[in-house]
Design goal:
1039 residues, Immunoglobulin-like, five-stranded antiparallel β-sheet, mainly beta, Rossmann fold
C-alpha cells in the first residue's frame, strides 16, 4: 500500500454517533478483543461493544463504576479491564463487572491508562502513581520517583536500552530511576503518549507544544531528544500539540490531534477526509484493527471507520472526465481504459489521464491484439492508438443512436451494434451492415467458443437470439424466452451467463439447461445484473443496479457494498486486470477493490431457550422447552454485518449431519428437540469468500420432570387397558394437573359425566403417588345398603347393633396408608357426610358403637356426576364438606369435546375386545370415524367402548363398517356447535349394554375375561347395577 492510497477521498468510511448506539461522543480509547469485538471507551457515556451489527452499551446499571472510561486492556484470561476516572478499575468476564479501587491497593481511583504486559500483569496508570495488577490484586505500586510524588501518569514505555519512562504532568518525562528527558535542564510539560518504532526511537506526543506542529523524538542510543516538525503538510493537523501517537505494523507513524498525520519514514502526509460534516479539529486517537481498518476516535464527534485498503474511489478530482463510469478495459501494455459519460481516460502508474473527445463512451472492447475499441454517440466507433482515436461511422445519420455493443469474432473482426437497430462488423476500418437483423434496442454481443454469435435486444420478448445459417433465431430455452431486458452476456466454463433485469441466467451450451438466480431465491443483492467478468480463480463478479457487487464462487453469492448511496452501488462495468486487481465502474466514480486475506471471526451472541442466555458455551434445558433459538454474528468490519453469510448444522439431530447452504440469516431455531446431547456448529463467510473457524455450542436436552411424570401417568393408564395417548388439549390439561396433585396428599374431587373415566383417574392418582404400594379402596356411595353406610365406611364394634357379632373395620381403616375412592359422593346421606367431614378434618374416626378415636392416614378422592352446588341449594349436600373435598378439583371433559381422540379410542377398543374374544383385530372403515364424530356421546367413553365391542361381534370380513354401529341418529354437521349432553336415557340403553357384556362373557363378572373388565367397571359396581335392573344369569336347560 502506497502513502497516496491513505486518503479518505479514496476509501470507504462512515461515522458512528450516539444515534447509532455509541455510548458517548467523547472517545478516549479503542480496543479489539480476541473474539473480534470492538470496544470503545468514552468520557461521557461509559463503554460500547460493537460487533459490526450493533452497539451494546455498558453503564452504571450494568455494574460499571463510572461513566468516564479512559482506557481498555485485556488480560491473559480474556477478561476486559476498564480504567475509569473516579471509579477505579472494572474487570468484565463477559457477564458481570468486578470493581477494584484503592481498597484493593490501587494508588488512586482516577485511572488514566492501562497496559497489558508480556508477563500477564496489567500496568495501571493513575493520577497519583503506577500499579501492577495481577489476578485481582496489586502486586506492586509506585507513587513517587526520587522523593517527588507522581502526578497524572498518562503513559509508560520501556526503551531498547531497558529504561522505563513515565509521561507525567508534574515531572514531565521521567524514568523509574529518576532520569529525565528534556531540552537542557528544561522539563517539557504535558507529555501524553509514547510510541516506539523498529529502530528504537521513542516518539512522544505532547499535549501542548505551541503553535507549530511537532512531535518529540528520543534516541536511547545517544540519549538525544529533539522536536520534529510535522511540516507544511499539516493541513489543520497536529496544531497546538498532539493527543496520540502510534507506530503501525508497517512502521509508519500516526499522529492525531487536529486531524490525522501519517509519516512513512520519509514524509508527512495528511490523512484528510471527504466527510464535510465531520470536524477533525480534535481527534483523540487512531486504532488499527486485525483487518487493517482504521478507527478514529473524536473528542466530541464519535467514532469514524475507514477501510484504507479494500475499497478506494476515484473521481474527477483524480483526473476522470466524469464520475459516471460506463465501460472498462485493459490494453496490451497493462493500461486500464475508463469510459465515462464525459469521455475516455486511461490509468497508468496510478495516474488518470483523460484523452480524446469529451463524448459519452457507451461500449468498449479490447481485441486479441490488445487494441482498444470504444463506441460513442451518433453511431461512432473509435479505434484507439495511444491518445489519438480513429473514428469509424456505423451510421451516417448524425441523429443515430449510440453504439450499444462491441465484440470481436473468431476472425478478428469487430462487431458493432447501434441502439437504433444497425448491426454489422468492422473490417479494415469499414463498417459492413448485416442483413436480417430487424430489431431495435440491441444491447449485448458475444461470440461463444463454438462460434455461435449471440445478440440481445432490450424491451422485447424474447430478448436473446443466436445467429445460425444466416438467420437470427430466438433462444428457445426454458425460461430465457420470457426475458425482456438483457444487459450483458459473458461466456465462462462452457456456459453463457446472461445478466438481465430479472436476475442472472446460466445457459449450459452443451445441454441447453438453464439455471436462474434471483434475489428472492439465492440472496442476490439486486436482480438487475449490468456487468460480468471472471477472475483467475473462476469466481464470477457482477455489477448490479443498486446492489453493489456480487461475487459467485459456484455455490454462494456474496455481495459487496461500495458505499452508502445508490449511485455508489450502481455498477455498469467490472474488470479484473492481468495482476488480478478488480475495478468497478459506478455512477459515483471508479472503484479499486482489493479482496481481504484476514479470516472473519464468529461469535454465538445469545441463545433463547425459555430464557435468554448471553454468549453461552453450553446450554441445558428440559425437553418441554418449545424452541431453542440461536443468534450468531460474524465479525468482519470491512465486510459489514449485512453482507456476512452463514452455514450451520446440528450434530446428533440430522442423520446426514450436513451443513446448510450459506445464507444471510444469523439466527436458527430448533423446535421440540428430543432428549439427548447435541452439538451446534456454525461458520461464516465474508464478502471475499473467506471462512471463519467453526463456532460451536453444546446443547443438552434433559428429561423434563413434569413430562416424565405425564409419560409415567400415561403408562399407568395404558396398563389399565382403558385409554390411549390423548391428543385433546382439554385431556392433556387434566393429565398435567393430575401429575401435580398426585405427588401431594391433597383431597381431590373428580367431576365428570357418566362414563368419562372418573374411577380410572382416581386409581391413576393412587398409582402415581407415594401411596401406590398401599391399598386402594373403592366405595360406591350410592350402592351402600341403607342404614349401614356408616358401618361400611367407618367400621363397628362388637355388639354395636343387632347382628354385629364381632368388630369390623370400615373402608377408611382398610385404606390406612393408601387411598379411599368415594364414588358417587353426591349419594352419601347427610348424617354420613357429617362424620366424613369430621374424619377429613381430624384424621381420626370412631367406629359405630365405639368410644375411642382411631387415627387413620388416608387420602380421599371423591367423584360425582352430579352438580354438587345445586345439591347444596337443595339441602342434600353439606356446603362445608363440599369445600373440604374440592381443595383440588379435576374435571374430565366429555367425549364430545374430545373429537380428535375418537379414531384412536375406537381402534384401541376394537383391538382390546378382539383379543378378548380371541379374534383377528378388525380394521375400521374410513366412514366410521366421521359417523362417530357426528354423535354427541351422552354415555361418553363407556358408551363408545360398548358400541365398538358390539361392532366387533357383528362385523364381517374383519372390517367394522357404519352398518355395524347401532348408533342412534343424533348427528350434526361439521362446523355446528357442539350440542349439550343429552340425558343418559337418550343414549344406548344401559341395561342393554350390561346384558350384551354379560352375554359375551357367559355371565362371568370377575377376572380378566369377566364382564366388569370388559365394561371398565368395578365388579361390585356391576353387581349393584345388575341388582338395580334385575339382571340374573338365565338358567340353562339342565339346571
Amino acid at each position: 500500500m502506497s502513502m497516496s492510497d491513505l486518503s479518505f477521498e479514496h476509501v470507504l468510511s462512515s461515522q458512528y454517533t450516539v444515534f447509532d448506539g455509541l455510548a458517548g461522543m467523547h472517545v478516549e480509547d479503542i480496543y479489539q478483543d480476541r473474539q473480534g469485538f470492538l470496544w470503545i471507551a468514552t468520557a461521557d457515556g461509559g463503554v460500547s461493544r460493537f460487533d459490526s451489527a450493533r452497539f451494546d452499551t455498558f453503564g452504571l446499571k450494568d455494574g460499571l463504576p463510572n461513566l468516564t472510561v479512559m482506557a481498555i486492556a485485556e488480560d491473559a484470561d480474556g477478561w476486559l479491564l476498564f480504567g475509569t476516572f473516579g471509579g477505579g478499575l472494572a474487570a468484565y468476564d463477559g457477564r458481570d463487572f468486578q470493581v477494584y479501587t484503592t481498597e484493593h491497593g490501587l494508588p488512586s481511583n482516577e485511572i488514566l491508562g492501562l497496559q497489558a504486559q508480556p508477563d500477564g500483569s496489567i500496568v495501571v496508570l493513575t493520577s497519583t502513581g503506577v500499579a501492577w495488577f495481577v489476578e485481582g490484586r496489586c502486586v506492586k505500586c509506585i507513587t513517587d520517583v526520587g522523593g517527588q510524588p507522581l502526578e497524572r501518569v498518562y503513559d509508560m514505555a520501556t526503551d531498547v536500552a531497558g529504561t522505563t519512562w513515565l509521561a507525567t504532568v508534574g515531572q514531565g518525562i521521567i524514568s523509574l530511576d529518576g532520569q529525565r528527558i528534556g531540552i537542557g535542564n528544561q522539563i517539557i510539560q504535558w507529555p501524553w503518549k509514547f510510541a516506539q518504532d523498529s529502530s528504537g526511537h521513542l516518539w512522544i506526543a505532547f499535549r501542548y507544544t505551541g503553535t507549530e506542529a511537532s512531535i518529540g523524538c528520543y534516541n536511547p542510543s545517544d540519549e538525544q531528544f529533539a522536536f520534529i516538525s510535522v511540516g507544511h503538510g499539516a493541513d489543520r493537523a497536529a496544531q497546538n500539540g498532539t493527543r496520540h501517537v502510534r507506530v503501525d505494523k508497517r512502521g509508519w507513524l500516526w499522529l492525531t490531534h487536529r486531524g490525522v498525520m501519517v509519516h512513512d519514514g520519509q514524509e508527512w502526509y495528511p490523512f484528510s477526509a471527504s466527510l464535510p460534516d465531520i470536524d477533525f479539529s480534535d481527534t483523540r486517537l487512531t486504532y488499527e484493527d486485525r483487518e487493517g481498518n482504521i478507527w478514529i476516535g473524536l473528542w466530541g464527534g464519535g467514532l469514524i471507520f475507514c477501510d484504507p485498503t479494500s475499497i478506494r474511489r476515484y473521481t474527477e478530482v483524480d483526473g476522470l472526465p466524469d464520475r459516471e463510469i460506463r465501460r472498462l478495459g485493459e490494453d496490451h501494455e497493462g493500461r486500464m481504459w475508463i469510459g465515462t459519460m464525459g469521455g475516455m481516460a486511461y490509468m497508468e502508474d496510478g495516474q488518470i489521464l483523460p484523452v480524446g473527445p469529451r463524448e459519452i463512451v457507451s461500449a468498449m472492447v479490447v481485441d486479441g491484439q490488445g487494441q482498444v475499441w470504444s463506441g460513442g454517440d451518433a453511431g461512432k466507433v473509435f479505434r484507439w492508438e495511444g491518445q489519438t482515436p480513429q473514428m469509424i461511422a456505423v451510421a451516417e445519420d448524425p441523429h443515430s443512436g449510440e453504439i450499444s455493443g462491441l465484440c470481436e469474432d473468431g476472425q478478428g473482426r469487430i462487431w458493432a451494434a447501434e441502439l437504433m437497430g444497425r448491426l454489422g462488423w468492422i473490417e479494415q476500418n469499414r463498417f459492413t451492415p448485416l442483413t436480417g437483423w430487424m430489431f431495435e434496442e440491441c444491447r449485448a454481443l458475444l461470440q461463444d467458443q463454438n462460434g455461435v454469435f449471440w445478440v440481445s435486444s432490450y424491451g422485447m420478448i424474447p430478448a436473446l437470439y443466436y445467429y445460425e445459417d444466416g438467420q437470427f433465431r430466438p433462444a428457445e430455452v426454458a425460461e430465457t424466452e420470457t426475458i425482456a431486458y438483457v444487459n450483458v452476456l459473458w461466456e465462462h466454463a462452457n456456459t453463457l451467463w446472461i445478466g438481465t433485469a430479472k436476475g442472472l441466467f446460466a445457459l449450459d451450451l452443451a445441454s441447453r439447461k438453464v439455471r436462474h438466480f434471483t434475489a428472492e431465491q439465492f440472496g442476490l443483492s439486486a436482480n438487475g445484473i449490468l456487468a460480468l467478468t471472471v477472475d483467475p480463480q473462476g469466481n464470477i463478479w457482477m455489477g448490479t443496479s443498486g446492489g453493489g457487487i456480487l461475487r459467485y464462487d459456484g455455490q454462494t453469492f456474496q455481495s459487496i457494498r461500495l458505499g452508502p448511496s445508490a449511485l455508489e452501488n450502481k455498477v455498469e462495468a467490472v474488470l479484473c486486470d492481468r495482476r488480478g486487481r478488480l475495478w468497478f465502474g459506478t455512477r459515483a466514480g471508479l472503484v479499486s477493490y482489493q479482496p481481504g486475506h484476514t479470516l472473519p471471526l464468529l461469535v454465538i451472541r445469545e441463545v433463547m431457550a425459555g430464557t435468554i442466555l448471553a454468549a453461552p458455551e453450553a446450554v441445558s434445558c428440559p425437553e418441554s422447552t418449545p424452541e431453542i433459538r440461536i443468534r450468531f454474528q460474524g465479525i468482519s468490519f470491512r465486510t459489514g454485518a449485512g453482507q456476512m453469510r452463514y452455514s450451520h448444522r446440528l450434530l446428533g439431530h440430522d442423520p446426514t449431519e450436513s451443513w446448510s447452504a450459506f445464507a444471510a440469516a444469523n439466527t436458527v431455531a430448533y423446535n421440540a428437540l428430543p432428549v439427548g446431547e447435541y452439538r451446534f456448529e456454525v461458520r461464516t463467510m465474508d464478502r471475499d469468500g473467506l471462512l471463519s473457524e467453526v463456532a460451536s455450542l453444546e446443547i443438552q436436552i434433559l428429561p423434563d420432570a413434569k413430562t416424565e411424570r405425564i409419560h409415567a401417568l400415561e403408562s399407568v393408564l395404558r396398563a389399565t387397558d382403558h385409554v390411549v395417548h390423548s391428543q385433546s388439549w382439554a385431556m392433556r390439561q387434566v393429565m398435567e394437573q393430575t401429575v401435580r396433585v398426585a405427588e401431594t396428599a391433597m383431597t381431590v374431587l373428580v367431576l365428570g359425566e357418566t362414563g368419562t373415566g372418573k374411577g380410572l383417574l382416581a386409581q391413576t392418582i393412587h398409582e402415581t403417588s407415594t401411596r401406590r404400594k398401599r391399598p386402594f379402596i373403592q366405595v360406591n356411595c350410592g350402592a351402600l345398603p341403607a342404614g349401614l353406610v356408616e358401618s361400611e365406611l367407618f367400621g363397628h364394634e362388637k355388639g354395636a347393633f343387632t347382628g354385629a357379632a364381632s368388630r369390623q373395620l370400615g373402608r377408611f381403616e382398610l385404606a390406612d396408608g393408601g387411598t379411599l375412592f368415594l364414588d358417587e359422593i353426591g349419594d352419601l346421606p347427610l348424617e354420613s357426610q357429617r362424620v366424613l367431614l369430621h374424619i377429613l378434618e381430624e384424621s381420626a374416626l370412631t367406629r359405630v358403637g365405639g368410644q375411642q378415636p382411631v387415627s387413620v392416614d388416608v387420602r380421599v378422592i371423591a367423584a360425582t356426576n352430579r352438580d354438587l352446588r345445586q345439591a347444596i341449594q337443595e339441602g342434600t349436600f353439606r356446603e362445608d364438606l363440599f369445600y373440604r373435598l374440592s381443595v383440588f378439583t379435576l374435571e374430565l371433559p366429555p367425549l364430545r369435546q374430545r373429537q380428535e381422540d375418537l379414531p384412536a379410542l375406537a381402534a384401541h377398543f376394537a383391538e382390546r375386545y378382539a383379543q378378548h374374544l380371541r379374534r383377528p383385530v378388525p380394521t375400521i372403515d374410513e366412514g366410521v370415524v366421521a359417523h362417530l364424530q357426528g354423535y354427541a356421546w351422552p354415555g361418553n367413553v363407556r358408551e363408545l367402548e360398548h358400541l365398538i365391542n358390539r361392532a366387533v361381534l357383528l362385523c364381517e370380513d374383519g372390517v367394522i363398517r357404519v352398518g355395524d354401529l347401532l348408533l342412534p341418529s343424533v348427528g350434526r354437521r361439521a362446523g355446528d356447535a357442539v350440542p349439550p349432553a343429552p340425558a343418559a336415557g337418550e343414549g344406548l340403553d344401559e341395561k342393554q349394554q350390561l346384558v350384551e357384556a354379560l352375554q359375551a362373557t357367559n355371565w362371568m363378572i370377575y377376572g380378566e375375561r369377566g364382564a366388569a373388565r370388559l365394561l371398565g367397571m368395578n365388579p361390585e359396581k356391576l353387581r349393584y347395577r345388575m341388582r338395580k335392573y334385575g339382571l340374573r344369569r338365565p338358567k340353562t336347560s339342565y339346571e
